[in-house]
Specification:
With about 180 residues, the protein is α+β, with helices and mostly antiparallel strands. It contains five helices and eight strands, in the order βααβββαβαββαβ. Helix 3 packs antiparallel against helix 5.
């Protein structure tokens, strides 16, 4: 069976049209062009995307976090619905956490809709725990958000956890005929 390679890379201004298209598909236009430009220009922000030569270098998914003191605050994790349940979200989350560790951050946090069980399940597989709830957090429908935390990413034993996650990410991608490019 043929495997199709994906790669995860930092996004730049050249990717803006694809970023805005994916934002519209996944979020209905949550962030503006100016907001994404600000993310890419900020030294405190990390924005990454998944691409594959198989899809004509189309942006399949993206993730972003802000470095706030010792914390990676994950602001976006989005995968084009055409590629849901194929391991892309796990690959992006792994990459974001690995990058946060490389930056010397100690923990990761995020908010997620209480109704988004698929995302909550993914985050829990990566060790995130519920730390609280933000009432009526989402403006579009006043839905609550769960606050999820993952601590200890700076600890000496965390690379072993990362190595295990990497194996699981690769196995998940493999089930859908994808493989992570070396260096991603």
């Amino acid at each position: 069976m043929n495997k199709f390679e994906i790669q995860i890379q930092a996004l730049s201004n050249e990717h803006l049209p694809a970023i805005l298209e994916l934002d519209k598909i996944c979020f209905g236009g949550l962030w503006s062009k100016v907001a994404y430009e600000r993310e890419m220009d900020s030294p405190n922000s990390e924005i990454q995307g998944i691409f594959s030569p198989h899809t004509g270098e189309k942006l399949l998914g993206m993730g972003c976090f802000w470095s706030i003191l010792e914390e990676a605050h994950i602001t976006i994790l989005a995968v084009n619905p055409q590629y849901h349940r194929q391991g892309m979200g796990a690959a992006l989350l792994y990459s974001l956490i690995n990058t946060a560790r490389d930056r010397g951050l100690e923990r990761a946090t995020l908010e997620v809709r209480v109704s988004n069980q698929a995302a909550i399940s993914l985050y829990e597989k990566f060790g995130f725990k519920t730390a609280g709830r933000r009432r009526r957090y989402y403006q579009d429908n006043s839905e609550d958000a769960l606050i999820l935390w993952l601590g200890g990413i700076h600890k000496p034993d965390f690379p072993e956890t990362l190595a295990n996650w990497y194996v699981n990410v690769c196995l998940g991608l493999d089930k859908s005929c994808w493989q992570l490019a070396v260096g991603s």
